[in-house]
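hey so i finaly got around to running the thing on DUF443 family protein from Streptococcus equinus. pasting the sequence first so u can double check i didnt mess up the copy paste, my clipboard has been acting weird all day
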Amino acid sequence: MLYSNKLTAIGNYRGDSVFYDEEKEAFYLASQKHEEKALSNTVLAGLILASLPLIRWLDDSFKVDNIVFRVILLGISSLFMVFLASHYLKQRYLRLQLERLYFSDVEFRSFIIQEEKNARIALSVLYALFLIIFISGIVYLVTSIFLFLFLTVIFLFPLILFLLIKPWKRRIIILKLSKIYK
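ok and heres what it spat out for the 3d tokens, dont ask me to read them lol
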């Protein structure tokens, strides 16, 4: 079975992603037949180090004194990151092959307990990301320092990914399942 939008990612089981279909009340496991190309830590560190001189150059060369232009620049950068994050998530999920997953009672209880903890952590991270983005965006608008624009846009990527996987719906499903099976 291929991934569809009706499925909700609710957690991990033995290192694989678990999806839940509310209509069929069924669990699906994402088979890991394809390997994702991951950036190594050295490449990631190199990209970050290469971007720092660019940010310094932007700070020295371009001073955006007009608040309207700062808002427009922040908006365009944010829209670009939203597009990039949604495209990344669609490409990742559309390639997933799903298999039906059956839990024993003991496995299901331990899975639900772990995912209740994970859902709370995920919502805490979501709130923290929102706060960081809000503060760095306001600081950019006030000071016109490109580092804060960069931070705002970079932190938008994980925030959009979190929002696209529907963390509140995930938490509601997990709470519903924990009430049913406890």
